[in-house]
User: Fold these one by one.
Assistant:
Number 1:
Amino acid sequence: MCLITFSYKQHPRYQLIFAANRDEKYDRPTREAQFWDENPEILAGKDLQAGGTWMGITKSGTWGAITNFRNPSIRRDDPPSRGHLVLDYLKNGEQPVTYLQNLHPKADQYMGFNLLVGSPNQLGYYSNQQNEIQLLDSGLYGLSNHLLDTSWPKVERAKDRLSELIQNNSIAEETLFALLADDHEAPEDQLPSTGIPLEIERKVSPVFIKGEDYGTRCSTVLLVDVEGQVTYVERRFRPGTMEVIDENRYQFEVNQCQASR
């Protein structure tokens, strides 16, 4: 993902409200969100080039999502795919803090990343640009291609809109997809400086990006209510537009026996 905003354990109905856009080159092959034949507990999209995923959830309620950390000066020789960090977490069934503790010693092998890993009773965040495991308290958060809650314009716009929806009791699939459809470019004086040319910085400043070769490939809404009912909806787009080419929608109840492990 390249833009995530989420509310964790601060809503009377939903313990998790999660809205995210995945931005990627249009020619990178991708499979839509589905339960994986090889791992039927996992619901996620698939990066068909490297085999990992950018976000997903299991039937036991563990979930993960990743964003890249934008810094052109970071160099690695033949780094492993960051998408496998999410996939490995979903496959191994560990608690978030345990997974992140095991990841920490080898995190520098990867290009820059931000990783969110959650379970029904714990939520962890880790960036290999900060090297600090954080267990998150209830609250509203935003994440893009820098550290958690870095105040980039797109992050602040998404968080502010999510906060409004919560305050107005307007949380619904369509209102969250509308949040993710914000294609407003930030003013030049508000753009972050991440080492890329100013014109490119401007083009990637919206919540929803519509570039020539790179942009928002899909939007995902994930809702987990206090009774463990999961709603996962993914919309994929025609490159460079907001035209929906397909929608993949799943609902299930968290497996309470597995979730209590």
Number 2:
Amino acid sequence: MEHLGQPDRPVGPAAEVAWLRKIIAERAITRGDYVLSGGARSDYYIDKFALFSDPNVLRRIARLFVPLITEIAPDLIAGTELGGVVIATAVSQMSNVPMIAVRKKPKGYGAFANEFVEGPFERGMHVLLLEDIVSNGRDLLAAKTRLEELGLHVTPCAIISRGLAPVRALVQFSLPRGSSPLEN
């Protein structure tokens, strides 16, 4: 698998990253037997909408991307369908950088049928591509490839990496089987 960025290099301030890990453990972890989007099985699930539905939490997560935006100075923020679009919208609003959305499948209707990307862009633009939770990185890689095929320069980043893909993320979050979320 292609290496996406620097997974061991923190994106935001340490105190904010610690807060994000804590809020994930307190609000978004559900225990059970789950099949993740990439097909792997897990005994926990991270419900991103338990975080995104709270405007204060969503705003605080969006602020964590400020150092990355300062570092790379993107022309656009992009979000992957569906959760990535939520965070990209919040980051775009906070940073005043325009956004686009990247679909998993092309839209089959309307004025822009058969297109993967929604929103205006120009060839050569630098895009900060945001994903919510990454397990194996497959969807993020596919979105990155789609944008690069359109002549865009892409820096991908996720909010949460479950530790199964080498993806730069705000927080690497994985739980050993059966452990308590608050222990990690």
Number 3:
Amino acid sequence: MNRKLLLGLLIALLPVLAIAQDRVRIGPEAGDREIILSGTGNSTNDLDGFQFGLLGSLGWFYTDHLELGLRQSANYADVPNTGDNAWNGSTRGFVDYHFIATDRAWPFIGGSLGYTYGDRVSDSPFAGLEAGLKYFVRPKTFIVGAAEYQYFFDNLSNIDNAFDDGAFIYTLGIGYLF
């Protein structure tokens, strides 16, 4: 009889235990800041030249879904068949809007405006469109993959023609919310 009473009491307490557990929020909340470190790289098909780069990002969530921030990239290239190398970089502000696909997967779309400079590039302003995915491996830590299309222009009068002569930027990195 005592076993049945004890079992009945435990079963009756299960809903209370379930309610008492705190659900840990995964992903950003308004006011969170974010830091990301990403890498890029490529080489020729003969492996006689290569390029790699680092991209750092610092963002702030204005709302749970809208992020504003700044990105800095630095790239190094070993130019094939010349024995030459080059450094270039870019600095840009960005705005991203995040969607919730699942608890852990947060796709985003956005845009950026910045400036590129360096040894083998024309120093110029650019605008960009981007899309990507942040996958949270822990409540505040994520892996991010993104693609960005940047188009370069010298002044506002040639911005329409510049869209056709842009460049794709791909990144893969890790980020943290704090």
